[in-house]
Write a structure and sequence with these properties.
The chain has 498 residues and is an alpha/beta fold. It has helices spanning 11-23, 36-44, 74-87, 103-112, 123-132, 134-148, 163-178, 194-202, 269-279, 286-299, 309-318, 324-331, 337-349, 369-378, 409-417, 445-468, 479-485, and strands spanning 3-7, 28-33, 49-51, 66-69, 92-96, 115-117, 153-156, 183-188, 207-210, 221-225, 244-247, 259-262, 351-353, 356-363, 385-392, 395-402, 421-425, 429-435. A 6-stranded parallel β-sheet has the order 3-2-1-4-5-6, with helices on both faces. Strands 9-8-7-10-11-12 form a 6-stranded parallel β-sheet. Helix 7 (163-178) packs antiparallel against helix 10 and helix 13 packs across helix 14 (369-378). InterPro entries: DDH_dom, DHH_sf, DHHA1_dom, NAD(P)-bd_dom_sf, Oligoribo/pAp-PDE_c-di-AMP_PDE, RCK_N.
Length: 498
């Protein structure tokens, strides 16, 4: 429950208090003013109010989450602001400038308040946005959660993280550090896409690469960014107790954590983290700001895919702090020969039915080449939806893209493959990974090639059938084959699929 303290209650403050008391039935509110008539009027309206000096820092011993400095007089508000900041350093303070501020007053307000409201602004709406909006409350709740952690925090991305996940993890580490908490940005897998590696290297981002065999005992708490469930697209134990989840993807299953912020309307988790850094009134580190902006641009395809007003607001906040020269270098890395070969194999091996193209690229060492190949197929004339997949060790990785209005790729991949692996994503871009357990016990290369050929057929047909039977039909013809092939220890008859 959020506790809001109002110091002084002039004309603006009175309007705000009235609307806060109507909007905020679950929160606590206390008004402290030296005007006895205002106190009596508020009490008559069942608004908690107390007569006292708003400039006296010890007027209340309760710890407020949000403070609104709301007298009509600039000098009173400045004194109240200075006292409140000394007394409650962790509180979020919104301060009204009053009617006649000097340049020195403005400077003092900017230095001490988290948000300053000018008389020329749309006052009541702005104050309510800053003191009662969901984003303000979630920032308060996040601070509370971070302050309860006793020990080191692991901020974990999904496997093989993309720019949005990397930037979000780095930003949450910055937020945690601001409240005195030690934290690491962590990931499993590899950062193999050339642009992602360029981002990490050029911005000198501090990341820890975890291995499945690594002990997690050094961490007292865990946060997930850009995904929401341990053991699903990361290599954490499924039963792990998670403290914080911040994501923008729609969850496929229950999300369990002490603090959960799922913003499905946001185009990127980096958008959400930009808001948190801003709400915490932290100075934007240029490297973090550049990473966040790049994360937003990648996940929204330069503000053309599933973009929201929040994404544009975040970009406008970040832009003054971005290292534009480094951003240009990140966006123009050298493309490796292997990536070009993967794209060429996808074009050569594609199977197309109507506007849907599916391609196996065979064995891969760099899974980040798959989404680039899927994008290239999508650029071909007559193609509206693509799926590209490749094999590495005992895993098959899939990447899909679509510009068709009647296709939801996230749901399509889940319908086709979730029973035999993990899958998910957005309507126009999604991915999956499947374990081919049968390959672990096969040494003969010809037999491996035979199994791979069957798997390729299974994957293609499951995807085509999921497209044809949308929304959400299960695939029947290949269910038994899939369950045997994609299960460690499953049996495989030498002559072909069972």
């Amino acid at each position: 429950m959020v506790f809001r303290l109002v110091l002084g209650c002039g004309t603006v403050g009175r309007h705000v208090v009235e609307q806060l008391s109507e909007r905020d039935g679950d929160g606590r509110l206390l008004v402290i003013t030296d005007d006895e008539s205002v106190v009596e009027a508020l009490r008559d309206e069942s608004v908690p109010a107390r007569r006292g000096d708003p400039t006296d820092a010890v007027t209340t011993n309760q710890q407020p989450d949000v403070i609104f400095v709301a007298s009509d007089r600039t000098d009173v508000n400045r004194a109240a602001l200075e006292a409140a900041r000394r007394r409650f350093p962790a509180a979020s303070i919104v301060a009204y400038l009053g009617g006649n501020p000097t340049r020195a007053d403005r400077s003092a307000f900017e230095d001490r308040a988290d948000h300053v409201v000018d008389a020329a602004d749309a006052i009541v709406d702005e104050v309510l946005d800053e003191t009662a909006s969901p984003s303000a409350e979630t920032a308060i709740e996040l601070r509370r959660q971070l302050e309860t952690i006793d020990g080191r925090l692991a901020v974990v991305t999904h496997d093989n993280p993309d720019p949005d996940a990397i930037a979000s993890a780095v930003a949450l580490v910055d937020v945690a550090t601001s409240v005195g908490l030690e934290a690491d940005a962590c990931y499993f897998g590899d950062i193999s896409h050339q642009e992602n590696r360029a981002m990490v290297n050029l911005l000198d981002l501090d990341l820890r690469n975890l291995r499945p065999e690594d002990s997690l005992s050094a961490y007292a708490a865990f946060a997930l960014v850009d995904h929401s469930r341990p053991g699903v697209n990361d290599q954490l134990p499924e039963e792990l107790d998670v403290d914080i989840v911040i994501d923008h993807h729609p969850p496929r299953g229950p999300v369990s954590a002490s603090f959960v912020d799922l913003r499905e309307h946001a185009g990127a988790t980096s958008t959400v983290m930009t808001e948190y850094v801003d709400r915490f009134s932290l100075p934007f580190d240029p490297a973090t700001a550049t990473a966040l902006l790049y994360g937003i641009r990648i996940d929204t395809n330069d503000f053309t895919r599933e973009v929201s007003p929040a994404d544009f607001r975040a970009a406008s906040i970040l832009w003054p702090h971005v290292e534009t020269s480094l951003l240009e270098q990140i966006e123009q890395p050298t493309i490796e020969g292997e990536t070009l070969e993967t794209i060429a194999r996808a074009i050569k091996n594609r199977v197309q039915r109507d506007s849907v193209a599916v391609a196996s690229v065979g064995r891969i060492t760099n899974r980040d080449a798959l989404p680039q190949a899927a994008d290239q197929l999508l650029a071909m004339e007559g193609v509206g939806t693509t799926l590209v997949f490749g094999f590495r060790d005992e895993m098959v990785f899939l990447s899909a893209r679509s510009r068709a209005n009647d296709v939801d790729l996230g749901e399509t991949l889940r319908d086709a493959f979730e029973r035999i692996g993990s899958a998910g994503g957005h309507a126009d871009m999604a991915g999956a990974q499947l374990e081919i357990g049968i390959l672990g016990g096969v040494d003969d290369e010809d037999e491996v090639d035979s199994i791979v050929s069957v798997v390729e057929e299974v994957i293609a047909n499951r995807f085509f059938e999921a497209i044809d039977t949308r929304p959400g039909a299960s695939v029947g013809a290949y269910t038994r084959t899939s369950e045997l092939l994609f299960t460690r220890g499953g049996e495989y008859e030498r002559g072909g699929p069972p």
